[in-house]
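Posting this for the archive.
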Amino acid sequence: MHANQSARRLTRCGKTNSIDYPGFDSTRLKGFTLIEMLLALLILAVAVSSASLALRPDPARQLEVEAERLALLLTLAREESDLGLLPLGWVAQETGYAFQRRELTESGQEWHVLRNDELFRPRTLPAGVHIHAVLTQGRLLTPGERLDLGPSGPQSVVVELVAGPLRARVERSGADFIAMHAREGS
């Protein structure tokens, strides 16, 4: 029998069986070589690693976004306090911050965290970003100390955000808070 007329298959007993398949040539049967398989795996590995690098957040950009968000929220809260709509305060912790509203209760005026407010809800900073310092009128606020955002609040405020060696600042400039771009610093 010719190789192109039949294919031989070994059985468990070591005997051969002849199975005829028209047009089948067992000498021309090929698979992938080891080199081809390794090359395909190498290409796949390079594609996956480049995709993961592209999806990794840029720490400088992430820090700038958080500084811009904080500046906008502080400006909005100050405006609402100035208009008398809500007397608001801001409390910073190392890994996040919260806005508070002063309310009149039976025991007098008390500050309460705004938990159900979509805009002024408590926020946690992304991993790796934290509040390094809050200065008002040149005085360092301790974590948890409230910053009054009303008309009687300080005119000079600096909030420093840090992500590794990168630093960004939020400063009060007149009526608004402005985010300063991330830079490397000590």
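The CA atoms of residues 9 and 16 lie 6 Å apart. The chain has two helices and twelve strands.
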